[in-house]
Amino acid sequence: MQADDSSPLVEENRRRDGADDAAVRAAGKVSEALETIEQARGHLYSFHQLTGHGDLLLDEAVQQLHEAGHSQLAKHITEELIGRNVLPGRWSFQVVEDYDDGYYACFTHMESLVRQRLTGGRRHVLEAELKEQRRTHGHLAHSAAPAESAPQLMEE
Fold this sequence. Notes:
By secondary structure, the chain is an all-alpha fold. It has a domain at 39-142. The protein has helices at 21-67, 71-80, 92-119, 125-134. Helix 1 packs antiparallel against helix 3. The longest helix has 47 residues, at 21-67. It starts with 20 loop residues before the first helix and ends in a 22-residue tail after the last helix.
C-alpha cells in the first residue's frame, strides 16, 4: 500500500532554520534525560500509592489481631505504625509534592529552556529525523504523519 509522503516531517518536529547537528543532539539528550526523570516520577507516585494502600491494609490487620486475641500487638501497631511519617515530618504525598515543586519543576523548566533556545521549542526533533531516515517511504504503515485513520496493515 502507498502512503502520502508529501510532508516528510511534521512541522512541530522539524528542525528550525540554523539549528546544527550538535545543538539538535544536545537538545535530544536533555529531552531523553527528562524522559528518564518522568519514569522516576512515576515510580515516586507508585511509592506514594503503595505506601498509602499498605497503611490502610493495616486497619484490617489490626482488627484481625484484636479478633485473634492479640489486642496488645494490635495497639502497638496502631500507635507506632499506622499513620507514621515515611520521612521526618512527611507522609508520602508530601514527598511527591516536594519532588514535584523542587527537582521536577526545575528539570522540566531547564528542558523547556534548552528546547526553546536550540530547537525553537520543537519537541523530538532528533527522533523525527531518525524516523524519516528509517521509515520505508511510500509504505502505508511508515507514513510521515498520522492520517485521520491510520490503518496498521502489513504486506507480505
